[in-house]
Amino acid sequence: MAIGAHPTGTPVPLRRSPGAVAKFLRSGDWWRHLLLIIVCIFLFIPMALTIVISTKTISQFNVAPLSVTFPMHWDNYVTAGQFVAHYIFNSIIISGVTCLGVLLVGSLTAYVFARFTFPGKTFMYQGILVLLMIPPILTLVPAFLLVKNLNLLNTWGALILPYMAFGLAFAIFILRTFYEGMPEELFEAARIDGASELTVFFRIAAPLSKSILGVVAVLNILGTWNNYVWPLVTIQSDNLFPLALGLTAYRQAYYTLWGPLMAGYVIGTIPLIILFAFTSKLFVDGLSGGALKL
Asked: Where are the domains of the chain?
């Protein structure tokens, strides 16, 4: 009997299995993907327009501000790079030192809160949690007066030290949760072998928390890199400006030259793109591994 034929001999049409597109539409998830695509388009449109405008002269911008024009003037990036390179270097130093300080102090403090018992532990930890509930803008005046009394105005210390203080509360909050979930047997075995507490931390706790430390590092760098208000009130010297203030000075210098101005903004985003490109896997592993699960 032929395949697809009825026992009486009457041919029966074969049923085709639905294709991948049909299965996808029937699953009911298509509208979520469509919504994500629309959101991504609106997110990338400003960046695409910025890149398009960055290759224009002032005359090309006046004629066709939002469309691609030829020839493209990539020399705008050379002009912009010469202006903002110093500010990018300043931001790399400020954000890098701040991040290292937050990771070192925050991880050690979180380890103590997670693995030790001492009087006032709960009260001190709750005090740290209270700091997370205070909007940073409310601490602007007290922090400014403190930095002024310490004679740190117009120095990198006026940025690095407060950034570390602001970032430690979140780092301790995240890392303590992770360290509490580690099995005690790992630490007991190391102590039996004669390891000190610092050795236990740096040989066991720190290597196992790389993904969580990556999450804290990325979030801390993003916060310090994009901060504008605090450097504005504490730094007056152009040589010490981070990128956020440097781009403002650059805009004032090139406010009529849209090509070099947009090229400066594009160059300013490159370090963050590189950072996320090299740390995205570590960041995702930290999130999926329980960095933000309480």
From this structure: 77-288
pTM: 0.79
Measured CA to CA, the distance from residue 159 to residue 235 in angstroms comes to: 9
Give the per-residue SS3 of the chain.
Answer: CCCCECCCCCECCCCCCCCHHHHHHHHCCHHHHHHHHHHHHHHHHHHHHHHHHCCCCHHHHHHCCCCCCCCCCCHHHHHHHHHHHHHHHHHHHHHHHHHHHHHHHHHHHHHHHHHCCCCCHHHHHHHHHHHHCCCHHHHHHHHHHHHHHCCCCCCCHHHHHHHHHHHHHHHHHHHHHHHHCCCHHHHHHHHHCCCCHHHHHHHHHHHHCHHHHHHHHHHHHHHHHCCCHHHHHHCCCHHHCCHHHHHHHHHHHCCCCHHHHHHHHHHHHHHHHHHHHHHHHHHHHHHHCCCCCC
Q: Terminal CA-to-CA distance of the chain, rounded, Å?
A: 63
What pLDDT digit, counting tens, does each position of 1-47 carry? Answer: 445 555 555 554 545 555 555 565 566 666 777 888 888 888 888 88
Please tell me the class of the 77-288 domain: mainly alpha
Distance CA 293, CA 116 (A): 22
The rounded distance, in Å, linking the Cα atoms of 109 and 13 is: 72
Q: Which of 151, 158, 144 is nearest to 98 (CA)?
A: 158
> What residues pair up with 44 in beta bridges, in sequence order?
none
Tokens 């103590």 found at: 112
